[in-house]
Input
Amino acid sequence: MSAALSGLDTLRGRIARKENPSAAVTLGITLTEVEQGAATFQGAPHAGLLNPLGTVHAAWAFGLLDSACWCAAFSTLPPGVATTTLETKINLVRAITLETGLVRCEAHVVANGRTVITAEGQVKDGKGRVLAHGVSTLLVLRNKAGET
Output
């Protein structure tokens, strides 16, 4: 994170440079779109994500949701201010399998406070069916003087 760039400009730069954090690489997901207060990740499930029953592990959908919500929140912040997830709650409503194909998670900020940001998102398949949805609560991390 650059102290000279806003959250939105930092994320736009990552997309332009095709920089993917190591956790996103591991999960096989990519930040594809970001606007003020909104972000989209996408990825396709692979065999390394399967649980013992042969469906994609819930942690993958959680990773998509948490990442998209975090980026949506971060996109609202001025230079030198960061955020971290306090809590994410996810509801899994449809199984994700290898046959599901490309999956997208679109998230947006619901409430943007000085110390806490709340964002919500939906994980959808290529047909627009909701696979999971949830909410993240994120802590705003300001410098010691409390300046923005």
